[in-house]
Design brief:
two-stranded parallel sheet
Length: about 80
């Protein structure tokens, strides 16, 4: 999977932080109504940890799994 550059989201502007949080929350809150393909693509992009401009973190997959499990409605 190629690296993704968060700069395409115009993240240089601090005003983008809140809208990005709302988009992320909306994806999580609607996780179970997304198609399997959409969930797969979002999940694989997130756990790959290769978004240029975001800080690297350890155990990213486990953190994302926990977030989905604890916050997505009716998550398995």
């Amino acid at each position: 999977m190629a690296d993704f550059d968060i700069n395409i989201l115009n993240s240089h502007d601090a005003a983008d932080a809140i809208p990005l949080q709302y988009i992320a929350a909306a994806v999580l809150l609607n996780w179970n109504v997304l198609s399997d393909e959409a969930r797969r693509v979002v999940y694989e992009t997130a756990v790959a940890g290769n978004v240029v401009g975001l800080p690297p973190t350890t155990s990213l997959k486990e953190q994302i799994d926990r977030l989905i499990r604890n916050n997505a409605p009716d998550a398995p």
